[in-house]
Design a protein that fits this description.
Layout lengths: L1 H10 L2 H18 L1 E6 L6 E2 L3 E3 L4 E5 L7 H13 L7 E6 L3 H8 L4 E7 L7 E2 L12 E6 L9 H11 E8 L11 E2 L6 H8 L6 E2 L4 H6 L4 E5 L7 H7 L7 E5 L3
Length: 254
């Protein structure tokens, strides 16, 4: 199972994967019934979650809503630490995740806009280097696991800073590796070499421990939030949360 999932993630085009995955997962959901783990996003329970990742992680993917560990943590953070589910907010969601789209779109308090350069799930076709919205347009911006793919991560973040309202905030997650400084080399264009150096064929950089400091150069304020440390070990296990995940919360800067 792990090797099959790894192969599919590496070689099946992302837009096709986004369309087909929900249908395929229905089969696995029925095969995996149980009560050992519960997804807080869709509230479905299973004997375990499915493996996921290029190097497949066990107990990672909810077969019902397709949430991963980081999505389940973000959902809990939004519920417990923000007014996301109650306040009237205009939201820009870049590269929207399947587990969130329908749920966020169904919230009556949100003016919810999804955007991506290629995703069939997004309503607006958009390049994050040139966001087609005026200054101070959004209360909230989400952009998760995107900045490692784009040509200029700081230009994209400067655009987020521009379109956020003065009181605006957002969440900007990316894979962060245990290296001191972000690794970037624009001369590396071969997909196989990118996978070897950056961890994935469509990654153009490998973020290090300087991730927050790096993004601050765009003008954004970045908070390294350790919300996961407030969660009990029992709930971390039950929801299959990433026990060391930092939530990178951004706010509009100067």
């Amino acid at each position: 199972m792990k090797s099959i999932i790894s192969f599919v993630i590496r070689y099946v085009p992302r837009p096709l994967l986004q369309r087909v995955s929900p249908l395929v997962m229905q089969v696995f959901a029925k095969m995996n019934s149980g009560n050992a783990v519960t997804c807080p996003v869709c509230e479905h329970s299973y004997k375990k979650f499915l493996p996921y990742g290029r190097i497949a992680r066990a107990n990672a993917l909810c077969p019902n809503c397709l949430s991963l560990e980081r999505h389940r943590l973000m959902w809990l953070y939004l519920k417990e630490k923000t007014n996301f589910f109650s306040a009237p907010l205009r939201v820009l969601h870049v590269a929207p995740e399947h587990c969130f789209i329908g749920r966020f779109a169904g919230l009556g308090n949100l003016d919810y806009i999804t955007a991506d350069i290629e995703s069939p799930l997004a309503k607006v076709k958009m390049d994050v280097h040139d966001i087609p919205f005026p200054d101070n347009s959004f209360d909230v911006v989400f952009c998760n696991h995107v900045l490692e793919h784009v040509e200029d991560d700081l230009k994209a973040c400067a655009e987020f800073n521009r379109v956020l309202k003065p009181s605006g905030w957002g969440i900007l997650q990316s894979p962060v590796y245990p290296i001191d400084s972000t690794l970037e080399d624009k001369s590396i264009t071969d997909p196989a070499e990118r996978e070897r150096i950056f961890g994935q064929r469509d990654h153009v950089r490998k973020f290090g421990k300087d991730y927050a400091e790096r993004l601050r150069k765009s003008g954004l304020q970045i908070e390294e939030n350790l919300f996961v440390k407030e969660i009990s070990p029992e709930l971390i296990t039950q929801n299959a949360l990433p026990p060391e995940e930092v939530i990178f919360v951004c706010r509009k800067g100067n």
